[in-house]
Design brief:
- The chain is mainly β.
- The two termini are 42 Å apart.
- The protein has 3 helices and 44 strands.
């Protein structure tokens, strides 16, 4: 069995309007922090002694390597047993990784220690960070500890265990306020086993106020609900057909960043569509939120979208005691309601984030897909589209598949053989749409839409790109001739369409302006792009690396109609492969280019 799951961003494309989640800036800045985005440990950090490599039987090899490294999700899971989520795409973090090469290592007690931190004049100090700690494969606990002399360590927190997700951690350090030399360390043990690992990121020390609520994230759905509950619509959708819109339940995640418990925490939502506000809608208050505690507050609005276009949900939070810094008490999130035609997204129902951060698939039979929740009976899923990976091979056979909540077959597309034209469109990130063979009105309920690699004598590869993290039960992966079922946390870029693409995907996509021609190949210090403008429009472009990180953004302003020739300064780029993402008005086109060594 050769099913490949890769969670590194290969090429990032914008195909439809992307959902945007907005939050307010945190009022109290970090006076000490580390995000590891440059790929190295900051100067002055202590990673402790080297650790010895061992055989699987635990026999020392006499080779010693660093216990702590900085890397991304792909590097963390290189051994297959430390699946750190790639959130955000291409993110780097510090880790003690007992699984990926060169370890199996002796990580009985390993510590990552900060340099001395001056807390003189500080009040209400707290540590905030993200941790990934599953404690799997026999691994031991993880601790946050503090010391004023570097020798006597005090346990400040036992790191909670959570499977499959990064977790926010807040640790009260106010006992050390006023001290001039405080060290913190993250300590983890593999318990003498060949365990997985421990990861930490986005370390921040900040001063806290007595009463201070903060919005972490705003949702257009209810993330506290179970995906396995049928006849609701609790999953998060980026695109939702108007005919499947129902009364919205929205939610907000709030954290108490203050030093005191906050009583009576409540949330209020306003929903805007087409410039018209609806609400306010109030949720059920939380009696008490203790310092460092976070919670999700759902709000049943009873309001249903009535037209296509963007719906913006804005939520504010408050408590019974006045917030001493209300600047971060609000946030917003967007949902696009779709309808017939290209402009309205062909009635697309999509759960992915529209920015690839990995792929799934390979050379064997598999089905990769998503749960879609139909709350209104009588709708017809006309077809299914998927964004395929660039390693997908010509001649390989795929089909779209629609199943009910019990994985029973409802409908499929006809068998489709990957063509050279498909490969050209895959290269620029265009989704492949396959119409259903026998579309019919569906009862309300949960369904699964998937893309299937069929079994044949062709051993070519098919990859489906994935984008974003979802709950267990939101997506499926079925592998092999027996269709072994699993519920991954990643979200395949597979979408249901309630309206046809017209005559076909080729005709529908022909209205997109032609993508830029980029030359020379390869570039050295300067390159060029040429493209045609059918009408005057605002134009900008981004240069993105193979990890999905935006290297530079250039706003070209409003360009006239006609042929365009734009110089590209690539003198500061390291040799390698990059993606050019050109935005013309509402369209986005992408091209790959290469920078050679100098």
């Amino acid at each position: 069995m050769r099913i490949t799951i890769t969670l590194s961003c290969l090429l990032c494309f914008a195909l439809f309007q992307q959902t945007v989640v907005h939050g307010q800036a945190k009022a109290q800045p970090c006076f000490f922090g580390a995000d590891f985005d440059d790929g190295v440990l900051p100067s002055g950090w202590d990673i402790g002694p080297l650790v010895e490599r061992r055989t699987p039987e635990g026999i020392g090899l006499g080779e010693f390597v660093p216990a702590w490294t900085v890397g991304d999700a792909e590097q963390a899971n290189a051994g297959g047993f430390f699946p750190v989520p790639n959130v955000p795409a291409g993110n780097r973090f510090a880790m003690a990784n007992d699984d990926a090469p060169p370890c199996n290592c002796d990580m009985q007690e390993v510590s990552l220690t900060t340099p001395p931190i001056d807390l003189s004049g500080r009040s209400g100090t707290a540590l905030e960070c993200r941790v990934f700690h599953e404690q799997t494969l026999g691994g031991g606990p993880a601790y946050v500890e503090a010391s004023m002399d570097g020798n006597n360590w005090i346990t400040m927190a036992l790191v909670p265990v959570q499977s499959g997700a990064w977790r926010s951690l807040v640790v009260n350090l106010s006992a050390f306020d006023g001290q001039s030399s405080v060290r913190l360390r993250f300590r983890w043990s593999d318990n003498g086993q060949w365990a997985s690992g421990f990861a930490v990121d986005d370390i921040c020390l900040r001063e806290r106020l007595a009463y201070d609520l903060s919005v972490v994230r705003t949702h257009t759905h209810d993330p506290s609900a179970s995906p396995f509950t049928v006849n609701d619509q609790s999953l998060r959708y980026r695109l939702l057909p108007l005919e499947q819109a129902g009364p919205m339940t929205v939610a907000v995640e709030v954290i108490n960043r203050g030093m005191q418990p906050m009583p009576g925490v409540n949330a209020t939502a306003i929903i805007n569509q087409g410039g018209v506000d609806h609400g306010p809608f109030a949720g059920v208050a939380i009696p008490l939120l203790v310092p460092g505690e976070s919670a999700i507050l759902p709000i049943s609005t009873g309001w249903t979208p009535t037209s296509t276009g963007t719906v913006t949900v804005s939520i504010t939070v408050a408590g019974d005691v006045a917030d001493m810094d209300p600047s971060d008490n609000g946030g917003s999130a967007d949902l696009r309601i779709t309808g017939p035609g290209w402009e309205d997204g062909y009635g697309a129902m999509a759960r992915d984030e529209d920015m690839p951060d990995g792929l799934v698939g390979g050379e064997e039979v598999f089905i990769s897909g998503n749960r879609v929740e139909l709350v209104n009976a009588g709708s017809t899923i006309s077809g299914i589209s998927a964004v395929l990976g660039v390693a997908t091979a010509e001649g390989t056979i795929i089909r779209a598949i629609l199943m009910d909540v019990n994985m029973a077959l409802v409908d499929t597309s006809v068998r489709h053989v990957i063509t050279l034209e498909d490969l050209d469109r895959i290269q620029v990130g265009e989704a492949r749409f396959l119409p259903m063979a026998h579309p019919a009105p569906l009862p309300a309920g949960d369904y699964f839409v998937g893309m299937q690699r069929l079994n044949d004598e062709n051993d070519g590869t098919v990859h489906v790109l994935v984008s974003g993290i979802g709950p267990v039960g939101g997506s499926i992966l079925m592998e092999g001739e027996t269709f072994l079922l699993s519920y991954p946390l990643f979200t395949p870029m597979v979408r249901a369409h309630f309206n046809d693409y017209g005559v076909g995907v080729n005709e529908a996509l022909s209205t997109i302006p032609a993508g830029p021609h980029v030359f020379p190949v390869p570039m050295r210090d300067q390159g060029w792009m040429t493209f045609e403008m059918e009408k005057p429009a605002m134009v900008a472009y981004r240069i993105i690396d193979t990890q999905g990180r935006t290297i530079s953004t250039v706003d070209l302003g409003k360009l006239p109609s006609g042929p365009q020739r734009i110089a590209m300064d690539v003198s500061s780029l390291a040799p390698g492969t990059y993606l050019l993402s050109l935005t013309q008005d509402k369209w986005v086109n992408t091209r790959v280019f290469v920078v050679e060594g100098r």
